[in-house]
Design brief:
Blueprint: H1 12-59, H2 61-64, H3 75-85, E1 90-95, E2 104-109, E3 124-128, E4 135-139, H4 145-155, H5 160-186, H6 206-235, H7 239-250, E5 261-265, E6 285-287, H8 298-307, E7 314-316, E8 324-329, E9 343-348, E10 354-359, H9 365-378, H10 383-410, H11 425-439, H12 443-458, H13 464-470
Antiparallel strand pairs: 1-2, 1-7, 2-3, 3-4, 5-6, 7-8, 8-9, 9-10
Helix pairs in contact: 1-4, 1-5, 1-10, 1-11, 5-6, 5-12, 6-9, 6-10, 11-12
Length: 471
């Protein structure tokens, strides 16, 4: 919603509000200057991720599709074939076919000593014909088209620095949305702009600019609240706001089950580019099995899953003598399209005892919100969700283009400086204080705002050449 040129009503109340209104518009503009490049990259990469979802399976049909011939082999027989084919690998997970013409899958690790090897461990998925036992091939899930787009979407291929930049941009986008709503609600539709830096005669194409302004305002109001939800759910995956602040107090306490706790957390079940466990469980310790000889095979666990009403699910194999069998069906992993049906079972490998039976109802409030909205964010709840997200992302891109067009249209010809809306220094400081208080919810964004204010106070305001660059 940056770069727009809102107008004010002529009432006395509006005239009293005008100084703050101008300052709010100025901060909306400045937030947009930083946010727009990142929001555009996130929107485009998100759109490409959505488009790649139905395309990705078509690219690997030779691995994922088989011709049903008779009865399928037991899971343990398929496991033996995979272990014989990859003797140096650790088998971490089994994904049974969900339909008759689908291949079975095993997730392998070549650089770990246990099934729960560690957060974001690399993996290889092996595809096997469940009827003949033929190994169809292998695929690194982090090298797929979708995974590459997801890596860019989450870190811009810059690792932790990229994650931090996105976190800052997301926090500032929240401020931009709030200031944009203020401008839209307290502006008057259909009125010519009253807040300008140049006479109307020196600004090109006023009529076209007014149309862009109306489009920008309309789309901004329509998608503002959904955009806030998308920003919050995306921020939950960032390192500081998500990992250090919110997730810690929104996770399921480890005391929910009585079994001894492992040194591994649930997040150790995740792999590079693939989340196997819900956000609310990532920082919860895994239980451990009792010491003793493991007497349960993969076939036993598959049968146990089917008798316990699991349909589409995955089985995580025990890691070492104290590891547990885990049966999971979650939306984050793509097993389900209904987050309320999520369920995770941890089973003692020595005696078959259920050590933990965790479901959506066990998550804390924030964990439930994340379990419901993260799949929605990713378009995983069905075709309706996928189409709705595509429309939403396109609307965000149009909003961004509209903001840029408004800046381009309102500047005088052959002038390429920022040209932010004018506002008194005192009023701008008042709004900056409000923005800073709100931004405290997002520490990295608040830190950037403080830095900007310090640079403005110590340098920009003291040197006329610097001031001319942004005025």
């Amino acid at each position: 919603m940056s770069g727009s040129e809102p107008s004010l009503p002529d009432s006395s109340m509006a005239k009293q509000r005008e100084p703050i209104y101008r300052a709010m518009w100025r901060w909306h503009f400045y937030a947009g200057v930083f946010v727009i490049p990142f929001l555009f990259m996130l929107s485009v990469s998100g759109l490409l991720m959505l488009i790649s979802k139905p395309i990705e399976p078509l690219l690997h049909q030779e691995l994922t599709t088989v011709a049903p011939t008779g009865n399928a082999l037991p899971a343990s027989a398929l496991l033996a074939v995979v272990r014989a084919h990859y003797p140096d690998a650790v088998v971490k997970m089994y994904l049974p076919p969900s339909i008759a013409k689908e291949s079975a899958r095993f997730s392998l690790s070549f650089d770990a000593a246990s099934a729960h090897a560690g957060h974001n461990a690399s993996s290889t998925v092996v595809y096997i014909n469940p009827y003949s036992g033929e190994v169809l091939g292998a695929l690194d899930p982090a090298e797929t088209l979708y995974a590459k787009l997801q890596a860019f979407h989450s870190s811009l291929f810059l690792g932790d620095p990229g994650d931090s930049l996105i976190e800052i941009a997301a926090g500032l986008t929240v401020l931009m949305v709030l200031t944009g709503l203020y401008l839209a609600w307290f502006g008057k539709k259909g009125e010519k702009p009253t807040v300008t830096q140049q006479p109307a005669s020196s600004i090109r194409d006023v009529t076209t600019r007014a149309k862009w302004r109306q489009l920008h305002r309309m789309i901004g109001q329509l998608i503002a609240i959904p955009l806030l939800f998308f920003l919050i759910s995306g921020l939950a995956w960032t390192n500081v706001w998500g990992g250090k602040l919110v997730q810690a107090w929104s996770s399921l306490p480890g005391t929910r089950f009585e079994a001894p706790k492992s040194q591994h957390l649930h997040q150790s079940m995740n792999e590079v580019g693939i989340h196997q466990t819900p956000w609310a469980l990532e920082q919860t310790p895994l239980p451990t099995s009792a010491v003793g000889k493991g007497g349960y095979s993969l076939d036993s666990i598959v049968k146990f899953a089917e008798t316990n009403e699991f349909t589409q699910y995955r089985v995580h194999l025990p890691g070492g003598s104290s590891g547990v069998w885990t049966i999971s069906a979650t939306t984050i992993a793509g097993d389900l399209t209904n987050p309320f049906a999520e369920r995770i079972l941890h089973i003692d490998q020595s005696n078959g005892k259920v050590l933990a039976d965790l479901s959506f109802g066990d998550y804390p409030t924030m964990g439930k919100a994340m379990a419901a909205f993260i799949p929605f964010h990713q378009g995983d709840l069905g075709w309706w969700n996928w189409l709705l997200n595509i429309v939403f992302v396109i609307a965000v891109i149009i909003l961004i283009v509209g903001g840029i067009a408004l800046w381009w249209k309102r500047r005088p010809a052959k002038v390429y400086r920022l040209l932010p809306p004018t506002a008194s220094h005192a009023d701008s400081r008042k709004v900056a204080g409000i923005m800073l208080i709100i931004s405290l919810l997002f520490p990295l964004s608040a830190a950037l705002l403080v830095l900007i204010l310090l640079v403005d106070h110590l340098f920009v305001s003291r040197f006329s050449k610097l001031r001319s660059l942004i005025k």
